[in-house]
Design goal:
The protein is mostly helical and 401 residues long. It has one domain. The protein has helices spanning 2-6, 12-32, 34-39, 45-67, 73-92, 119-137, 145-163, 168-184, 189-212, 222-233, 240-256, 280-313, 317-341, 359-376, 378-385, 393-400, and strands spanning 97-99, 102-104, 107-110, 115-118. The protein starts with a helix and ends with a helix. The longest helix is centred in the last third of the chain and has 34 residues, at 280-313. Helix 7 (145-163) packs antiparallel against helix 8 (168-184), helix 8 (168-184) packs antiparallel against helix 13 and helix 12 (280-313) runs antiparallel to helix 13 (317-341). Strand 3 (107-110) and strand 4 form a beta hairpin.
């Protein structure tokens, strides 16, 4: 154990925050899993707890493995991953998978181990690395929009368009993060504003069609998106079924009060259909009160602070952009999950990072954290700032492209 701890590199504060969040997650997951057991008749509470523990253990193995990889290697790895991710996203749209009560074309089943994998989460991380690599390459160069269409915007558009039909919220978050990373990376502002204008026009047209003729949109999720937006904007007009989950979440928050009912004493967990994932924050507030909710928010804010510190202290431009690109979405996703529970956002289906049940979400969050920790390792950064090692074929390939 001492040898393992001695080999942990990178920002110790991030290691501590991630470990505390993971340990705390066992309490709400164990409590909320009674919904799966007694309402949906799926497994046992101990079984779900053990499964969650195994997923977290594998997640920490991912963190450990990835944080030992020199940061500049991710440039070359993105060149290999991007041509794989795009066909994989396209294939996922052809595969219909049922997870609990949800049937969608979001997951593929990994052979042998039988685990459902949501490809959009991996694609989001790969795309952020790809963009960080491109922005590093064009730093201090005069770039035109035409020059960036093939290496930047076509891969970005392909990934987002392939995610959009079955996961609107992830596509929207990813689009926002792409624009923010390009802005921070020094991409010409006039071109970014043009992209924002085009994006807003497309969104306006999409919303118009969604409300006027949702059946014209080639996605079985269109009706779900329409109902969620209507429930958020016009709760008094929403159907009882559409608004029920949001109302249950608000009731859980109200029942929690200042200090909560206590661990395992939530009542709403058996009424919220997604109490172990999308609405787990409501269960946390009901059981641990406003103090527990604010405490959890504090740790995510602390994680955000450490991510900014790591990005600011990184020696290479690529490392700075990489940390922002893969690190901020973790905290951003947490804030959106919390905002949905208190009805500041419409229901999105975004889990609470490192807290909610779910294999893909945990693993891809851990992948991103491992990358951040790799960039926070000062020794690796000193090596990366030196001359490129020609013995690394991925780095040579990245430099040529």
């Amino acid at each position: 154990m001492k040898a393992l701890l001695h080999n942990l590199k990178g920002d110790r504060a991030i290691w501590g925050i991630v470990a505390l969040l993971a340990l705390f997650s066992f309490l709400p997951v164990y409590s909320a899993s009674t919904n799966l057991v007694y309402v949906k008749d799926a497994g046992t509470t101990i079984g779900h707890l053990v499964k969650h523990g195994v997923l977290l253990f594998l997640g920490f193995m991912i963190i450990y493995a990835i944080h030992r990889v020199p940061t500049h290697y991710f440039k070359g790895l993105s060149l290999i991953a991007m041509p794989i991710i795009i066909p994989l996203l396209a294939y996922t749209l052809t595969v219909e998978t049922q997870i609990g009560e949800v049937t969608a074309n979001r997951w593929i089943r990994i052979p042998v181990i039988g685990v459902n994998f949501q490809t959009s989460t991996l694609a989001s991380v790969v795309l952020m690395i790809w963009i960080a690599r491109y922005l590093t390459k064009i730093k201090d160069s005069h770039i035109t929009f035409k020059d960036s269409i093939l290496p930047l915007w076509i891969p970005t558009a392909l990934v987002i368009v392939l995610i959009l039909p079955e996961n609107f919220s992830t596509a929207a978050i990813l689009s926002f993060m792409v624009l923010m990373l390009c802005f921070l990376g020094g991409y010409p502002l006039k071109y970014l504003l043009s992209m924002v204008g085009v994006g807003l026009l497309v969104v306006a047209m999409f919303i118009t069609v969604l409300f006027a003729a949702p059946d014209k949109i080639p996605s079985q999720r269109a009706i779900t998106w329409k109902n969620r937006i209507e429930t958020f904007l016009y709760p008094e007009k929403a159907s009882a079924d559409a608004s029920r989950q949001v109302e249950y979440a608000k009731m859980a928050v109200a029942e929690g009060g200042l200090v909560g009912k206590g661990a395992g004493k939530s009542v709403m967990k058996n009424l919220l259909s997604q109490s172990t994932s999308d609405f787990i924050f409501a269960i946390i507030i009901e059981e641990y009160g406003l103090i527990g909710g604010l405490g959890l928010l504090f740790f995510y804010l602390l994680l955000l602070f450490r991510i900014v510190v790591v990005a600011n202290s990184a020696k290479s431009v690529f490392a700075k952009l990489l940390v922002i690109g893969v690190g901020l979405p973790i905290v951003f996703q947490a804030f959106i999950n919390m905002a949905v529970v208190v009805e500041l956002f419409p229901t999105t289906g975004q889990p609470l990072p490192l807290i909610s049940m779910g294999g893909t979400s945990i693993w891809m969050t851990c992948l991103a954290i491992g990358i951040v920790l790799s960039a926070s390792d000062k020794k690796q950064e000193e090596t990366a700032s030196a001359e490129v090692d020609d013995t690394n074929p991925l780095e040579v390939l990245s430099g040529q492209l």
